[in-house]
Write a structure and sequence with these properties.
The protein is mainly alpha-helical. It contains 21 helices and 5 strands.
Length: 529
């Protein structure tokens, strides 16, 4: 009886989750070998934890929670490169499952009506699938943590129950363990939200809000402090993350041609770099060890002006990113602002949209100081999508549009939000698994292993990972084969990959073993092997 009533009450989200899992299972084979540098780093860290190599596993650049979730599975089944990729992919799918549940809770907190909520949730299926397969990294886990946190902080019960403050602190700490960016975001958002609630609440609620603020911050700092202490001890300096230091240096004037371009990391041009320890595939596994020249926007007026230009360019860049994925994003944003100031819109709707606007501004404002990326903005996509459905529903409820017009708008929104993800999935699903195929060829025919290098940074990191080998990155940019040969020998490189270069290199200490004209790749092997 209970089972039947549960299914009847939740048939909509059950259906959505079944569709999501079915699509994920179907598409798995099309993305099963896809691997990139960030994902390799998290898998390497998980492998180090599973092997008990704590010193190498503790990492100040890559946050730990995603790797912690993978580590038990690698400990149980043992490590093979393909196992790591599969576990990461399956974990991302499971996280996506809970993201949908968490977003549904957030929708209920914002009192989105049944039909509207169902359509909103249905419109998220393909975007979540795309994000899971394209970026099986902690970015999707951060979305889960943030939507859970928002569903607690914006719940009316937050003002009357101390447990909500405690939960916010716990989830805030978990978000920090997921990505270090969540540390400043949570502090700013949590404090500001409580201040707003305090001044908008009646007297008996104010005491609860203050207690929730103190409880949430205390728990957040206690849990976060454990990790801060751990990485600060390892790197001999007080830090909550070395990622912020690296990225802040990266966008400085020394590494950027102009403020409208991304920072160009010197690892792409400095030459070959030895991996920092035995548990990492490349230096990308812990960029804390790579020294960047620091800068400060307050060092001079010139640097301050540069920071202002950087922020302006990042704002423009952010809009370009969001528009590329959600072409009506600007219209939604303008509509949100208009709705919050319109006298024809009810107060509850205004509050919902104000909360969402504040959240988006705080979140994205942090990235404006450095550099936004497409994968960082997924929570923004979700909040914009939710806002669009809230707006259309509100216009109807406030008698500004008829139900027929409302339904037309809803169908248009749904189609708009699934079009781009469907297109992207189709495009990326048809890509060849080049790294995996080359690695299998080298393994079967040449028993390849050891130290790898390439003529460009991205040339062979995935191949090295699949062959359980070390990747030293790209050689220095030069046409002098003697210098290339010397750099390879000095770094004890066993295999050298050259892409898109029609000229065969005459290297003294290396000979050609594979000329793949289809992929414009030539592979050289050291003579002494």
């Amino acid at each position: 009886m209970w089972k039947n009533s549960f299914i009847k009450k939740n048939w909509d989200i059950i259906t959505i989750l079944i569709i999501y899992m079915s699509i994920s299972v179907i598409l798995f084979k099309f993305f099963q070998y896809k691997i990139a540098g960030d994902e390799i780093s998290y898998i390497d860290i998980a492998r180090a934890y599973a092997a008990g190599h704590w010193e190498n596993a503790i990492n100040g650049y890559w946050s730990p929670l995603y790797s912690w979730l993978m580590a038990p599975f690698l400990f149980i089944i043992g490590f093979k490169p393909l196992y790591g990729v599969y576990i990461s992919r399956i974990l991302a799918i499971i996280i996506g499952f809970f993201v949908l549940l968490s977003v549904r809770r957030l929708g209920n907190v914002f009192n989105i009506d049944g039909t509207i909520l169902r359509l909103f949730m249905a419109s998220l299926i393909l975007p979540v699938v795309l994000y899971v397969f394209l970026y099986p990294t902690p970015d999707i886990l951060l979305v889960l943590m943030l939507t859970l946190y928002l569903s607690l902080i914006y719940d009316e019960s937050y003002r009357t129950k101390l447990s909500y403050g405690i939960l916010c602190g716990v989830i805030g700490a978990l978000a920090y363990f997921t990505k270090s960016f969540a540390f400043p975001f949570f502090l700013v958002h949590f404090v500001l939200s409580n201040v707003l609630f305090y001044y908008k609440s009646v007297n008996f609620e104010k005491k609860i809000i203050l207690k929730n603020l103190l409880l949430g911050l205390t728990i957040f700092f206690v849990f976060s402090g454990l990790w801060i202490g751990t990485i600060s001890t390892k790197y001999d300096k007080l830090t909550f993350s070395t990622a912020g230091e690296y990225n802040q240096a990266l966008v400085g004037p020394e590494y950027k041609d102009n403020t409208f371009d991304k920072g160009i990391s010197p690892i792409y041009s400095i030459g070959l770099i030895q991996p920092p320890n035995n548990d990492t595939t490349s230096i990308w596994g812990d960029l804390s060890y790579f020294k960047m020249n620091k800068w400060s926007p307050f060092a001079s007026w010139k640097d301050f002006s540069y920071e202002i230009e950087l922020i302006i360019s990042n704002i423009i860049y952010t809009f370009n990113i969001v528009e590329s994925f959600m072409f009506i994003a600007i219209i939604i944003l303008i509509a949100m602002i208009f709705m919050t100031i319109s006298s024809k819109i009810d107060k509850k709707t205004k509050n919902k949209l104000n909360y969402i606007l504040i959240t988006m501004l705080i979140y994205i404002g942090g990235y404006w100081l450095i550099i936004p990326e497409w994968r960082y903005l997924w929570i923004i996509f979700i909040l914009l999508t939710m806002s669009s459905f809230i707006i259309i529903d509100s216009l109807h409820k406030n008698h500004l549009i008829s139900i027929h017009v409302r339904n037309i708008f809803l169908i248009f929104l749904f189609c708009s939000f699934i079009f781009q993800p469907a297109l992207e999935l189709s495009y990326f699903a048809n890509q060849n698994f080049l790294d995996y195929n080359i690695s299998k060829n080298l393994e079967l025919n040449y028993n390849a292993h050891g130290n790898f290098a390439s003529d460009n940074w991205d040339g062979a990191s995935g191949i090295a990972y699949y062959l359980n080998s070390k990747y030293f990155g790209g050689t220095k940019k030069t046409n002098n084969t003697t210098l290339i040969d010397q750099e390879l020998v000095n770094n004890n490189i066993d295999y050298y990959f050259v892409w898109n270069n029609p000229k065969i290199l005459l290297l003294k200490d290396y000979h050609e073993i594979l000329n793949d004209t289809k992929n414009n790749l030539v592979i050289y092997k050291r003579n002494t092997l």
